[in-house]
Amino acid sequence: MQHPLSLYNTLTRRKDPFVPVHEPFVGMYLCGPTVYSEAHVGNARGPVVFDVLARYLRHLGYTVRYVRNITDVGHLEGDTDEGEDKISKMARARQLEPMQVAESYANRYHRHMEVLGCTPPDIEPRASGHITEQIGMIEEIMANGFAYEVNGSVYFDVPAYNQQHNYGKLSGRVVEELLSGTRDNLAGQDEKRSPLDFALWKRADERHLMRWPSPWGEGFPGWHLECSAMGRKYLGAEFDIHGGGLDLMFPHHECEIAQSQASHSHTDEARVWFHNNMITVNGQKMSKSVGNFITISQLFAGDHALLTQAYSPMTARFFLLQAHYRSTVDITDDALQAAAKGYRKLMNGLRQITRLNLPEGTERAADTAAADAELRKLVADCYVGLNDDLNTARAIAGLFNLLRKFNGYYNQPVTLAQVGEAALTEATEAYRTLVQDILGLRDEPRANAEELLGLTLQFYTEAKSAKDYAKVDVIRAALKEQGILVKDTKAGVDWAYEE
RNA sequence: GGUGACGUGACCGAGUGGCUAGGUAGAGGUCUGCAAAACCUCCUACAGCGGUUCGAAUCCGCUCGUCACCUCCA
Q1: Mind listing the pLDDT tens digit for each residue in A55-93?
Q2: Residue A56, H or E segment
């Protein structure tokens, strides 16, 4: 498959041409949500960007298998090993079954992803459903001498691993430097041989709600393990693209690579490690711990001190895609307002391209070569942007340039006659494809049907009192076409759905 | 402290050794009953100071500033 798509690979620190392991198949894995609280806008960036990547790869003709996990077990609270996992903690606080908490947030996450236009992943495995696989992986790592058991917990032996492999290859870290930087941070880590070691399996204390039997007693899996285990199960020992937020690069993804190397495959799990940058608020990373976050629900409702109004899901998607995924993007009310208008403009273009017909009596120019070439260049620019490390910002800029052309044709049919039919069709189809299929921006109906109906009934009432029965009949018939019955009652005009 | 990024016009935000980014906002114009939309024109910026170069916002150095990771985080 010939195409010039290049992606920046964190592992190689440069843009490399994308070559799948098993063409035409592409396996991609994205670290999904930990379903113990409401997702914020920052959490939406990865899925949106990864969705565009999946859409574009499909557009290029690949058969994509997209896996995104749901983390419903295990992530420790804080950096001590005494913590309880987040879901258990919340469940205890609310007197709920832990899975109830997870399920409820997972459902909400799905709704948000849906309205954000994210195609569901092909497989959405849950950590809790893959305990067996995770235990199996731990056993492999132990058998290879890269993990040890202490008091019912199993730890990954980073120094041992680093003697044969390179721990830190993804994030550019050096084990010696990491060691020197962690000296005063040893509280509660006495079970570990090295402070860099990380848990593969944790013994559950009596308070811990989520627990599973294992060869080492009752416990739960470590926080980096699920992705390695599930990625391997559904995508193979070496798959194509592993994505996630930049803040997962270390230690999470670093540990994933170590686990994969140490257990079985001697691969880096994925060929391309794909990291999106953070959303900032006033220049500072949006994060749960800092508390400067806007939840997705708050954004959609306009329910936040930083927001003057509600912003629709598609506005949010457009806003995210207007920046390149490897840049930080600062979220402000002004920026969102600008995005809302830009998004609308793009949507108006979607309707505009259906109206570009040569008027009766207008002759198409004999030689359209120049105009055709110009139009094709504008289309090509969009793809150049996408191919260059999925630069959606450039692609969108290209779309606006195209749209300006289309609007010009519409205003001045003379100029429309200068361009050939084939080139025009290509361009309008490219516009539609890029906007809807690749960027995944759909037209959100803006008009409120009830209000429009109310307006129509107002005209109906006015026509009636003016005894303009011709108009009255026209309105009634038109509404009947839409399945709406107008009802003249003593109390006034009302309506009902036709039964 | 270690490591790594970044500083673009009123705002957001691409990009790059020489060629218009784009969106939003603002000004003028065309169109229009008024308006809106659209189109045309304008506002032509790259933190500061040096250096390399025929030429740098783009490469190098220094200074200032901001941020990220090193701990749960997309």
Answers
A1: 999 999 999 999 999 999 856 554 344 456 777 777 777
A2: helix A41-59
Task: Give the nucleotide with minimal C1' distance to the Cα of A172.
Answer: B3
Q: Would you state the pLDDT for residue A74?
A: 58
Q: Are residues A49 and A195 in the same domain?
A: yes
CATH number assigned to the domain comprising residue A298? 1.10.730
**Does A208 count as an annotated binding residue?**
no
Containing H/E element for A191?
none
Q: How, if at all, do strands A25-30 and A63-68 pair? A: parallel
Q: Is A31 annotated as a binding residue?
A: yes
- In angstroms, the CA A74 to CA A97 distance is 15
The nucleotides of chain B lying under 7 Å from a protein CB are 1-4, 11-16, 21-25, 37-40, 66-74
CATH number of the domain that A238 lies in?
Answer: 3.40.50.620
Q: Is A288 annotated as a binding residue?
A: yes
Report residue A171 as tokens: 């994030």
Q: What is the mean pLDDT of chain A?
A: 90
CA of A210 to C1' of B36 (A): 59
Structural element, H or E, at residue A54: helix A41-59
Q: Nearest nucleotide by C1' from A331 CA?
A: B12
Each residue's pLDDT tens digit, A461-476:
999 999 999 999 999 9
Mark whether A363 and A257 lie in a shared domain: no
User: Which pLDDT belongs to residue A187?
Assistant: 46
Over residues A149-157, the mean pLDDT reads 93
pLDDT of A495 above 90 = yes
- State yes or no: A256 annotated in a binding site: yes
Tokens of A481: 């076409």
**Nearest nucleic acid nucleotide to A381, CA to C1' distance:** B21
Q: Is A1 part of a structural domain of the chain?
A: no
DSSP track, A5-44: -EEEETTTTEEEE---TBTTEEEEEE---BTTS--BHHHH
Distance in angstroms, CA of A172 to C1' of B57? 29
Residue that has been written with the tokens 């995944």 in this structure? A440
A429 is in an annotated binding site: no
User: For helices A392-411 and A421-432, what crossing angle results, to 10°?
Assistant: 130
Residues A261 and A372 in one domain: no
- pTM passes above 0.80: yes
pLDDT digits (tens, 9 = 90+) for A230-272: 999 999 999 999 999 999 998 999 999 999 999 977 789 999 9
The number of domains in chain A is: 3
Using the CA of A338, which nucleotide's C1' is the nearest one?
A: B24
Which structural domain range is residue A411 located in? 284-438
* Residue lying closest to nucleotide B20, CA to C1': A401
Q: Is the ipTM of this complex over 0.90?
A: yes
Say whether both A47 and A125 belong to one domain. Answer: yes
Q: How far is the CA of A329 from the C1' of B16 (A)?
A: 21
Residue recorded with tokens 């140490």: A262
A120 and A210 both lie in a single domain: yes
The whole-number pLDDT of residue A81 equals 42
Do residue A39 and residue A21 come from a single domain?
A: yes
Measure, in angstroms, how far nucleotide B53 C1' is from residue A15 CA.
27
